[in-house]
């Protein structure tokens, strides 16, 4: 997960900051263009000027991973986590202290960091073990539960008697009790939080991919899926989600308005006008000015598109 907040180091001169910005912008552009080697070269220059900017290390880690240099990528991504100035995740030093104190006091400890790495491709924890920056997936919770059970057995606290077949049955029983609709709403809410934090790609992954898959008939979830798809530029996906919302709730004013935005961006001006009109018709008074502005703009574009030139 990307750092929550990055800052340039104190003491940079104006010239240094300008050069850093130039290299960083170049790197971001090269990553978008699918040129990780050129992005890495620019990021190396940026980091040589300022090695405290968390997102620069994060971007560098991604460039290295795309080049197949996974060990170096892991180092860069851990550095990004440690340089995050809004450290919602435990920095490496915190984990070191936990292990140190446990060893000094001779108490059992579960090294969850190592467990995550063992179950992650190239030892880099990602979507397989985390929903976002800190919350483990259901499968990661299962792994943690098994580790706790092993510790309890070693300490004589519990005497589990489970073979592989029993463990599979327990897993099946637990998974069958999960309310897919409630799970979908939980992921939708997490998607909203990530969106508010500016982490749009992660909000999209949870909102449009996972939550909507769990409860595809929920208008609220499909609306959030449409919003996240729209924000990352996936217009066709957003259109599909908004149309589903309107199918479920024909008077969903916000869905009509956002569908109008996506249709306008796609060039379907007649469709955009129609849904802006419906958004204005069904919408609340506080949204009227925005809806009127959208409608007027789309109508003007539509008139210009059908008016003979010259």
What does this structure look like?
With 310 residues, this protein is mainly α. It has 3 domains: 14-83, Tetratricopeptide repeat domain (Serine Threonine Protein Phosphatase 5, Tetratricopeptide repeat); 92-176, no CATH class; 180-306, Serine Threonine Protein Phosphatase 5, Tetratricopeptide repeat (Alpha Horseshoe), CATH 1.25.40. It is built from 15 helices and no strands. The mean pLDDT is 93.
Radius of gyration: 25 Å
* Average pLDDT score: 93
In total, the number of domains comes to: 3
Cα separation of the termini: 53 Å
Low-confidence stretches: none
Elements, N to C (H/E): HHHHHHHHHHHHHHH
Let me know the CATH homologous superfamily of the largest domain: Tetratricopeptide repeat domain
Major pleated sheet = none
Examine the secondary-structure arrangement and name the CATH architecture of the largest domain: Alpha Horseshoe
Q: What is the CATH topology of the largest domain?
A: Serine Threonine Protein Phosphatase 5, Tetratricopeptide repeat
Shape descriptor reads flat
Measured by DSSP, the beta-strand proportion falls in under 5%
Sheet/helix structural class: mainly alpha
The tally of strands reads 0
Q: Helicity, in percent? A: over 70%
For the record, the CATH class of the largest domain is Mainly Alpha
**Helical segment tally?**
15
Please name the defining characteristics of this protein.
mainly alpha, Serine Threonine Protein Phosphatase 5, Tetratricopeptide repeat, 310 residues
């Amino acid at each position: 997960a990307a750092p929550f907040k990055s800052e340039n180091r104190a003491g940079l001169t104006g010239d240094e900051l300008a050069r850093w910005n130039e290299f960083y912008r170049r790197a971001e552009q090269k990553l978008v263009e699918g040129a990780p080697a050129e992005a890495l070269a620019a990021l190396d220059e940026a980091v040589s000027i300022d090695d405290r900017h968390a997102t620069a290390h994060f971007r560098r880690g991604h460039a290295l991973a795309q080049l197949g240099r996974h060990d170096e990528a892991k180092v860069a991504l851990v550095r990004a986590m440690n340089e995050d100035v809004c450290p919602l995740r435990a920095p490496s030093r915190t984990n070191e202290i936990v292990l140190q104190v446990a060893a000094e006091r001779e108490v059992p400890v579960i090294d969850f960091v190592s467990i995550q790495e063992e179950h992650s491709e190239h030892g880099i924890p990602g979507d397989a073990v985390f929903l976002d920056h800190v919350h483990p997936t259901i499968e990661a919770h299962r792994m943690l539960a098994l580790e706790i059970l092993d510790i309890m057995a070693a300490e004589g606290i519990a005497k589990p008697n489970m073979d592989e077949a029993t463990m599979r049955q327990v897993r099946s029983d637990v998974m069958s009790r999960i309310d897919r609709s409630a799970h979908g709403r939980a992921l939708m809410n997490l998607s909203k939080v990530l969106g508010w934090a500016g982490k749009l790609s992660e909000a999209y992954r949870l909102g449009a991919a996972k939550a909507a898959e769990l409860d595809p008939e929920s208008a609220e979830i499909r609306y959030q899926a449409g919003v996240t798809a729209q924000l990352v530029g996936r217009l066709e996906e957003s259109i599909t989600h908004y149309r589903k919302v309107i199918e479920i709730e024909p008077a969903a004013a916000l869905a009509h308005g956002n569908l109008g935005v996506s249709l306008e961006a796609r060039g379907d001006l007649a469709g955009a006008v129609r849904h802006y009109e419906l958004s204005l018709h069904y919408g609340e008074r506080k949204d009227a000015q925005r809806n009127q502005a959208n409608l007027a703009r789309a109508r003007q574009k539509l008139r210009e598109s059908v008016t003979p030139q010259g």
